[in-house]
Specification:
Blueprint: H1 3-37, E1 42-46, E2 49-54, E3 57-64, E4 67-73, E5 85-86, E6 97-101, H2 110-126, E7 130-133, E8 157-163, E9 168-172, E10 175-180, H3 183-196
Parallel strand pairs: 5-9, 6-7, 6-8, 8-10
Antiparallel strand pairs: 1-2, 2-3, 3-4, 9-10
Length: 200
């Protein structure tokens, strides 16, 4: 084998090695870029539960029996800790039927409706409660065919959602009153749900 042939083979070998290194670097570059462009979700841990924020909602997993649920709530547990709780939980909330009531005469019921919806999703879909939409008075057409229920109905488990400048949850025997204004009302709703999920 002459010197030119040896040199040609050596050059070819070096070229192939250089090409392989370049291809490897390109693969690493594009893989790293793809990973860095992947969406990063905000996460947190609280009381043994893992929370992930997807869009505007926080999700966590909750198990009942052999079934695992992905539960969405607007706030994570730390964001609702400052919502005061007055009174103690009553055994009557363990019954199947739960009445969710509100005052139809109140104005600006948007957040009351949102809070009711969030409660209903968790209580009906996950906790399997039978929810009964109610009103505290028969003063509007929307309440004509609904049960009229207040905290005075001592034989029922009642959740009363109402607007108030003060944000809090009040347990009064058979009745849980959720109070707040705007988004603070929704924070109070989530605090109650986290209590029932035993996250808080």
């Amino acid at each position: 084998m002459d010197e030119t042939s040896i040199e040609s083979k050596s050059t070819t070998k070096m070229f192939l090695i250089a090409l392989a290194v370049l291809l490897l670097l390109a693969v690493v570059f594009f893989a790293t870029r793809k990973i860095s462009n992947a969406p990063h979700y905000e996460t947190m841990a609280y009381n043994g539960f893992e929370f992930t924020k997807l869009g505007p909602l926080w999700y966590f997993q909750w198990q009942q029996g052999d079934k695992l649920y992905n539960v969405p709530l607007r706030y994570n547990p730390k964001e609702v800790l400052d919502v005061p709780l007055v009174g103690t939980y009553d055994e009557r909330f363990q019954q199947q039927d739960i009445y969710i009531t509100h005052d139809p005469a109140e104005t600006g019921l948007t957040y009351v409706a949102l809070g009711t919806s969030e409660l209903s999703i968790s209580l009906a879909n996950v906790m399997k409660a039978n929810l009964i939409a109610s009103c505290s008075a028969n003063t509007t057409e929307a309440c004509w065919d609904r049960p009229i229920v207040t905290c005075d109905d001592k034989d029922k488990a009642v959740i009363y959602i109402r607007k108030s400048p003060e944000t809090k949850i009040i347990f009064a025997g058979n009745c849980a009153v959720i109070e707040g204004d705007g988004v603070d009302l929704l924070r109070a709703v989530d605090k109650l749900l986290y209590m029932w999920y035993k996250v808080i």
